[in-house]
């Protein structure tokens, strides 16, 4: 089994910054992709930032230039640096990872963290 544990959420004023962390643990053989989604009340879950299997990064236009994803391969951890936060960034932020646990036995599987609340006040 694989666990994703997020940390770093909280309350911040508009224009402020937060840094989220997500660490994968358990039966991790390799990580094919890892990143962040968010879900605001009454809205669908949306991509925020992610590393793809080719280690490229994807950001939606809504966060480009403000959010930066980075990672530490040795720690199976990704970080999300969020700057110039806006009230519309308020949401529960979920870490996701596509993980191979048993190569040649099982295909990669998608895992989600429990979510961390980010609230940006105006």
Question: What does this 3D model show about the protein?
Answer:
It is built from no helices and 11 strands. Strand 9 and strand 10 form a beta hairpin. By secondary structure, it is mainly beta. The relative contact order is 0.33. The mean pLDDT is 95. Helix content is 0%, strand content 57%.
Sheet of most strands: 7 strands, mixed
Unreliable sequence segments: none
Mean pLDDT reading: 95
- Protein structure class: mainly beta
The topology string of helices and strands comes to EEEEEEEEEEE
Roughly how many Å apart are the termini? 40 Å
* Strand tally: 11
Give the helix proportion (percent range). Answer: under 10%
- Radius of gyration from the alpha-carbon trace, in angstroms: 14 Å
Gross geometry: elongated
- Contiguous helical run count: 0
How much of the polypeptide forms β-strand, as a percent range?
Answer: over 45%
What is the fold's blueprint, element by element?
Blueprint: E1 2-7, E2 10-13, E3 18-26, E4 30-39, E5 46-51, E6 57-58, E7 67-72, E8 77-82, E9 91-100, E10 109-112, E11 116-121
Parallel strand pairs: 2-11
Antiparallel strand pairs: 1-3, 3-8, 4-5, 4-9, 5-6, 7-8, 9-10, 9-11
Question: What's the short version?
Answer:
The protein is built from no helices and eleven strands. It has 122 residues and is mostly beta strands.
Please supply descriptive tags for the structure shown above.
122 residues; mainly beta; 7-stranded mixed sheet; 4-stranded antiparallel sheet; elongated
């Amino acid at each position: 089994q694989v666990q994703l544990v997020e940390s770093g959420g909280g309350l911040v004023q508009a224009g402020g910054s937060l840094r989220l962390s997500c660490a994968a643990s358990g039966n991790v053989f390799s990580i094919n992709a890892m990143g962040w989604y968010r879900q605001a009340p009454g809205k669908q879950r949306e991509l925020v930032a992610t590393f793809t299997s080719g280690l490229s990064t994807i950001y939606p236009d809504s966060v480009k230039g403000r959010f930066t994803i980075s990672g530490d391969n040795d720690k199976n951890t990704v970080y999300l640096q969020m700057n110039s936060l806006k009230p519309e960034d308020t949401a529960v932020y979920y870490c996701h990872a596509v993980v191979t646990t048993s190569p040649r036995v099982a295909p990669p599987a998608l895992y989600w963290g429990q979510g961390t609340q980010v609230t940006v006040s105006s």
